[in-house]
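tool_call: predict_structure(chain=1)
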Amino acid sequence: MNGVAQNSLVIRANYRKTTYRQQSGRYTPQRFGRQSWYRFLENRTAISNSEVHGEPTERQSRLIEHMINAEWQALKLEAEAETAKTGREQYGRLRLAADFRRQLLLLDRELARTTLSSAASRERGRRG
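tool_result:
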C-alpha cells in the first residue's frame, strides 16, 4: 500500500471514531422510528433540564415538552424533504419544517424568560 492510501485509511478510521453526538453532546437521529424517538426525547430532556438549573416548574416542563416535539418534527420533515420525489413535495415539507423551527425558537425564548424569572424569585426568597 502506498503512503497516500495508508494515510486515507488512517483518516477514515479516525473519522468514524467520533460522531456528531460525541462532538456536540446532542443526539441527531438518522432514522425516525420509535427507538430513535425515545433516545431523542431522553437526550433533549436531559439537556433542557440542565439549562433550567434545578427542578423545572410545571410551565417549564410543558415548554420543554413542546420544544422537543417541535424539534423532532422539524428534523423529520427535513429528512423527508431530502427524499421527496417532486419539488413541490420538497418545498412543502421544508416550509413546514421552517414553521416548526420558528416555533422552537419562540418556545426557547419563553423558556429562557421563565428560567430567569424563577431564578430571580428564588434569589428573592433567599434574601427575605
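agent: The chain has a mean pLDDT of 83. Proceeding to next step.
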